[in-house]
Design brief:
The chain is mainly alpha-helical and 858 residues long. It contains 20 helices and 14 strands. The strands form 7 sheets. It has a two-stranded antiparallel ribbon. Strands 3-4 form a two-stranded antiparallel sheet. A two-stranded antiparallel sheet has the order 5-6. It is rod-shaped.
Length: 858
Amino acid sequence: MKRSEKVLRYSIRKSLLGVGSVVICALALFWGHGSAAADEAVAAAEPAVLEAVQPPADSPAAAEDLNQLKDSANEEVSASLAEKLADLEENVNLSDEEKHFAGEEARKTVEDAKKVIEAAESQDRIHQGKEGGLTGIAGINPVGQDLFLDEIEDEKEDFEELLSGSEALSEADKAAFREGLAAEAARAAAAIQKLAANAATAAEAEAIQSKVAAEANHFLKFAAASELDLTLAAKLADLKENPNLSEAEQQYFKAEAEKAAGLAKREIEDAEDSEVFDQAKAAGLAAIAAIHPVGKELILEEIEEDRTEIFKAIESSDSLSAEGRAAAEKQVGDAAKRAQEAVLAYDEQADNAAAAEKIQEQIAAEELGFLKVLAAVRVDLAAADKAADLKTNPNLSEAELDEAQEKIEAAAAAAKEVIEQSASLSEAEQNQASGIAVFDTIHPVGKELILEEIEEEADKQFQAIEKSQSLSSADKRKAQNKIVEALKAAHEAVNLLASNADSAAAAEKIQEQIADEETKAFEILEAIVEAAEKNTESSSIPSDAPQADALPEFQGGVSDSEPVTTELPVFILTAVQSPTAQLPSDAPQADALPEFQGGVSDSEPVTAESESYDLTGIPPLVSQLPSDAPQADALPEFQGGVSDSDPVTAELPEFILTAVQSPTAQLPSDAPQTDALPEFQGGVSDSEPVTAELPEFILTAVQSPTAQLPSDAPQTDALPEFQGGVSDSEPVTTELPEFILTAVQSPIAQLPSDAPQADALPEFQGGVSDSDPVTAEALPVYHLAAENVSIVSQSNQKPQSALAATATEESGRIEKQTSSAAVLPRTGELSQLPLAALAAVSALSGLALLARNKKDVG
């Protein structure tokens, strides 16, 4: 109950008591006045009697009457004091201090009255003392001010606490509210303090107390209105700062809050008691606090804006196909529609802040679901753009593009998975940005195309070396090995570089390094070829060519029963640069060699000249004699007779050159041996022609890209016949054709070190009579050169005629051939005997021929 109500009730009660007291006093005065008048009349009528019967003042009876009057007066004054003290105690408008002060004043008044009564010596004096005490007590009517001033101060402190706790108001707004309330409080306090603190009568005290209460109530209403304004300002600030509310939503709920505050202030202003006052204030505060809007318009607008924006991005994307764009638009449209319908289904406001916050979270969850779909679509768009950008990179091969595409797809899938796990809008946006940023780290570096170009260049240079006609086999092999090493080094250098970079600049730098490696590799390959071309003047005969000491010793005699020696041919296989190794269509065949058509007389020389053939154009093959090729010591010796009727045979081996799988080609282990050579089919008489069939070479290509004799190669029957004489004065010569065998191998062609040597050919086992100086020196000398080349040539040299040489010259010739051509090998001390015998026979034969020639001349 407010102080004003207490003051009003207390004033009514005091008014009743005051009226009663006045009536009693009036009756007492009227009764006293009547008694006094009667006494005066009696005294006037009977003065003598009174004087006669009145006891003296100092008589015991008079003293007893005064004491009774004093006691009665004291009791009456004490009763008035007790009543005053009780009244002060019940006065709710008085503070304890005010009650204590008023009580002390009443007690002092009573004490003073009792002193007068006690000292009175007459009834009048007693009566005066009693009346003075009663009048003094009746004049103590305090007006309560302290409690009202305290209430103003308390309300001021409460408002300050409320003001300080507000987070929605700015400091300027708080200062304005604080100054306004402080000014009103000061005005009210000053007005109350100007009023009298005590009144002469209860009625006056009541009137003053009402004024005090009115001033206090005016301040309290101002404070209540200020509190409503403060609450309203805080609510409006909260609405303004709510990020979920649109401008329209803010204006709507602002009007609702202002309406509630205005209604409450009018009710407070019209309130006449504290209950109405308190109810109006509480209702206004509750109405303002109950405003908890739920923002929906902004979210709906954002959903629509995002939908429109992503649609534009999808339509403008050149990386997506028409079907891809349609699918993406449908995905976004369905998600937007679903989110909008869910948001509209929620309430626009809640009864309390917790409920409003929960609804707002649910709406945010709907928006989050939609934004996840948008983020996934944006990731797909970025992935498609990245893939399209990589396809324009000319440095990437198809395999590298596929690998990069797999990385992009994996990164996109991982990003969408992380986006789906996002718990808030900001987290979803951050995960989207992080996922798209991963694509910026995918910058593949093209290697395969560069390596292919290097390999093509290496193959080109390799073929150039292979087709070179000026390089030996060894030089080719050396150059080709260098090319292989250079190619390997280029591969290693390129593979050491990173295959992917984190930025476009880094990828470009690595690509430049790879290009530098390619240029470097090209320069190295070119330098290898140039260096190889500079070495063309070096010897084409390899260091591992068969030597003369590997040929068999002469094992024949000089009688009819002893064989005639036959010098084995030396094959010279030189490196000739040719694109292909192929026998030409006009190459002579074995059956084309000329027959011996001369006589055996002393005066007719035996000659048989053959043509020189160039066997070029053989297709590339890998020709290499295997390690298990037949050796010279494995060939059978000549086993012919020396009589006129026994044919002299000297079978030469049949060579089968096979080409096996690249990189090497070798003679098979089952190659024919020397027993396949043709027999000597000549006689030793003057009338029988001396014939020596040349060996037949069979070139066989096994598992090789190209190695064959053409179908139109010339046959043996096409060779010219021998057209020489057989007289003693004419040397018997037979020029054999010069064969140039070329074979292109890829990548290595090499005759093994254990290829069959010349000493594997059989010795000639013919007879020689004194009259038949037959020599078998018509076979060519072959030099074998085994080098890592694919093009080989075979040529023969014309042998010197034994018939035109002296013994000394013959010896010199044999020695020369032994040292240069390596026809007669030295196989030990025992081999010197046949050699000596051969020298002796040759010397004797030479002397006999010279003598016969001189005789014929004479």
